Amino acid sequence: MLYAQNAPDFTAQQRFTTENIKFKSAGAELEGTLFKPGHSNAIVVLVHGSGQENRMVGVASLLASNGITVFTYDKRGVGKSGGVYAGPEVGTNNIDAANLDLLASDASAALNALSVHLPTKHVPLGLLGFSQAGWVIPLAAKKNAKVNFIVLFSGPMVNTLEQLRFQFYTAGNAKFWEMHTEAEVREHINNDPDRYPFKATDPRDALSKLSIPGLWLFGAKDIQAPVSLSIERLRVLQAKNKYYEFKLFPELGHNTASAESPEPVNFAIQWIKTLKI
């Protein structure tokens, strides 16, 4: 299906070391790189958005240069990772419930692999991801009790069918929000017939069962994820005593993790550094 987000591209200058690591998940061997700063405030596994994404060296370098240990791996079926990639480029549905669950298993297995290479008991251990990871990360956190926190950049708080209704409505038009109202968007999401009926994945199903902190970074001009509705649903979970926070950046769109707009990434780094276990 649709729903693409390019990996951010940063350049880091501070010192850290790297180590390539292979791990197994659901019958496939995946490969990634561990970025280790001299002193670590937290450990994160990076989770991809949609698309045929390799390990995210740029953002991993930035986080490591800010004292966060990072593991990033080539997505299943991409780069040096085995397995079969699912996505519209190859004629398959990458937001099918089975594929999202498989990607969540990969993220969980990557996190487990770190326990072999790192002392993970004394620093927060989390998952950080982009776009489509908004569905994958809650599933992975539910699978793995080692997860202490989650961070989502432009992660939708709607189910996968609602997401497609919104994306087909905006049709990639950068001026969409100049011509449409939030009321029109809600009406469309609630009533538009589905073009590709399949079992929907709703992140709230997993998030309602978690008891860990989470942070969502949104751009108000997003035309891929319905941000206002996502924030509304996060507030419902907050009212149920879930420690979920969000930050809205009025001038940004879907790409809230770019070198050109460093504020969201910097906000996430500082938020992670406040966490204790």
UniProtKB/TrEMBL annotation:
It holds the Pfam family Hydrolase_4. Residues 39-164 form the Serine aminopeptidase S33 domain. Coiled coil: none annotated. SUPFAM superfamilies: alpha/beta-Hydrolases. This is Serine aminopeptidase S33 domain-containing protein. It comes from Pedobacter mendelii.
